[in-house]
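User: Hey, my collaborator sent me this sequence without any context and asked if I could get a structure. I don't really work with proteins. Can you help?
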Amino acid sequence: MKKLMILPLCMMMLVACNDFKKAEERAQMERDSLMQVIDEKETELNEIMGSINEVQEGFRQINEAEGRITVANSNPEAASSKQVIRENMSFIREAMQQNRERIAQLKERLKTSTINVEKLTKTIQNLSAQLEEQTTRIQEMEAQLAEKDIQIAEQGEQINALSENVSNLQEDNAQKQQTIESQDKDLHSAWFVFGTKAELKEQKILLKGDVLQSKDFNKNYFTKIDTRIDKEIKLYSKSAKLLTNHPEGSYSLTKDAKDQYVLKITAPEKFWSASKYLVIQVK
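Assistant: No problem. I've predicted the 3D structure and written it out in structure-token form, which is a compact way to encode the shape of the chain:
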């Protein structure tokens, strides 16, 4: 009889222990989840506060630059004073633009933030108001400097947008810069193609075992790349062979997770020194 009474009691204790263990596991999971949420909120808050500090530091630096301009403006005839004014006005324009972008990013971030944003929103509104006040103050300073015929310019840019001479200079500089960029891009351009033996023959890229010997090979079949940027080419094949000459040690053929080859250009200048065309035969 005692044994019959002990058995149900043991079963009840076993069930109770099991329930307690499950409850403890659930509690631990809830604690872990809560800590993760807290960590995420703390990280997000730290990032937002970091951006706010950057904006405030930007305001401080702008105020310092204004002070330097005021001192230099007391003796505008000196060449050194004009240079100080130019440099600091250029710095102020750049710093104010950075602050505008940072404040805009903060506003966008708060739209999806999980943090209690009421105080942060007010802080950002105050930063926006401060930026507007600073913008007005700088515009007044620019007008005063313009009245004294002081050019506040750097690299062809100036405050007086109505000055035809400087406008023409900006246009000329822009055209020259565009030409330089275009020439620089062409200088670092190269072309590659990969295909089966039959495909390369069909495009006259491969002719009687020789590569690029035909004068009318299909150049449109090649892909244009920038040798400074494009240093990896996926070949999507388990068999690959370079047909054009490129120095050893300037590249490697490795396989990805799918066992397909990837060409990695490890020394671009050396790799493209022999030819600006790259032909790879795959299967």
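In plain terms: DSSP finds six helices and nine strands in the chain. You can pass these tokens on to your collaborator as they are.
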